[in-house]
Amino acid sequence: MRLDHKVAIVTGAAMGIGAGIAERFVQAGAAVVVFDINADGARQVAERLSQQGRTLAIHGDVASEEDVQGAIDQTVQEFGGVDVLVNNAGIEGPGLLADYSSADWDRIQAVNLKGYFLFAKHVIPRMRGRGGSIVNISSVHAFVSYVGNGAYDATKAGIIGLTRALALENGAEGIRVNAICPGYIRTPMTDDWLSIQPDPEATLKQVLSFHPLGRMGTPRDVADAALFLSSEAAAFISGTFLVVDGAMTAAGH
Ligand SMILES: NC(=O)c1ccc[n+]([C@@H]2O[C@H](COP(=O)([O-])OP(=O)(O)OC[C@H]3O[C@@H](n4cnc5c(N)ncnc54)[C@H](O)[C@@H]3O)[C@@H](O)[C@H]2O)c1
């Protein structure tokens, strides 16, 4: 599973799963663009990984079409093209839907769903004629819901539909599009969520008990799946999703 001579853009790569994917891709030989709304974080990750390969930090918001277009243009200028896109930048949006403000709804849709659409829309013309791979980070929340997570769940289910549609529309150009559905992965997002639970320690214990494999996932677990789907090893895999959850959903959680 190598990405030698490939150019990859990873969104939301300043921390968590995105940073893990950026690191894994650099180790696999790719030139990697670390795109994030957190400019300092993106710069730090790109700088750290530049010891191992070619990297570029780009500051932007996935929900801004101007930022997305600019990032893709800058990538092509710097590295000569784009072969792999990992749409990963996402936010949480806790709250009951009946109490949810339409402004909060618009923001979570703009980042978690429209941002994926915008990056795909603008990267596809760059992949035509050379092929490519798009990996969309969804979630097990595409299939299972917990009370108080509805807006997030809607975006994660939407990503699966977007993935299928993009795969159909672009298969003839050699562009493969797949999703990854992680379960609980230990990242700043998970820590923030744990911190707002009434009893974070008890919730953590309960979460661990959900996993037949006996642990939470790591960014590296998701990064390995992203590398597989982006590599030649997955040459005939498109329009589908890979669940990376330590058998949590198989156990009914
Ligand atoms: N952590 C989990 O358990 C888990 C499980 C399933 C799916 N996911 C998904 O994986 C992805 C990454 O999650 P994480 O846990 O690493 O999150 P995280 O909060 O730890 O990191 C998210 C990164 O995205 C960036 N970001 C946020 N909004 C952005 C925007 N508008 N434009 C550009 N960058 C932006 C943040 O600055 C941050 O660097 C998300 O799509 C999330 O929904 C996470």
Secondary-structure topology with pairs:
Layout: E1 7-11, H1 16-27, E2 31-36, H2 39-49, E3 55-59, H3 65-79, E4 84-87, H4 102-127, E5 132-137, H5 150-170, E6 175-182, H6 188-195, H7 200-209, H8 219-230, E7 241-244
Parallel strand pairs: 1-2, 1-4, 2-3, 4-5, 5-6, 6-7
Bound molecules: nicotinamide-adenine-dinucleotide.
Nicotinamide-adenine-dinucleotide binds next to helix 1 and helix 6.
Index terms:
seven-stranded parallel sheet, 253 residues, binds nicotinamide-adenine-dinucleotide, Rossmann fold, alpha/beta, single chain
Q: What does this 3D model show about the protein?
A:
The chain has 253 residues and is α/β, with parallel strands linked by helices. The chain has a single domain (7-244), classed as Rossmann fold (3-Layer(aba) Sandwich). It contains 8 helices and 7 strands, in the order βαβαβαβαβαβαααβ. It has a 7-stranded parallel β-sheet, sandwiched between helices. It is globular and about 50 Å long. The structure holds nicotinamide-adenine-dinucleotide (NAD). Nicotinamide-adenine-dinucleotide is lined by residues 11-12, 14-18, 36-38, 41, 61-63, 88-91, 111, 137, 139, 182, 184-185, 187-190.
Short description:
This protein has helices spanning 16-27, 39-49, 65-79, 102-127, 150-170, 188-195, 200-209, 219-230; strands at 7-11, 31-36, 55-59, 84-87, 132-137, 175-182, 241-244.
What is the number of strand segments?
A: 7
Instruction: Please state the second-level CATH architecture.
Output: 3-Layer(aba) Sandwich
Question: Any low-confidence stretches, pLDDT <50, length ≥5?
Answer: none
Order of helices and strands: EHEHEHEHEHEHHHE
Distance between the termini: 31 Å
Largest sheet: 7 strands, parallel
- Alpha-beta content class: alpha/beta
> Under CATH, the topology is which?
Rossmann fold
* Integer-rounded radius of gyration: 17 Å
Highest-level CATH class: Alpha Beta
What would CATH call the homologous superfamily? NAD(P)-binding Rossmann-like Domain
Mass-distribution shape: globular
Provide the domain count: 1
Percentage of residues assigned to helices: 40-55%
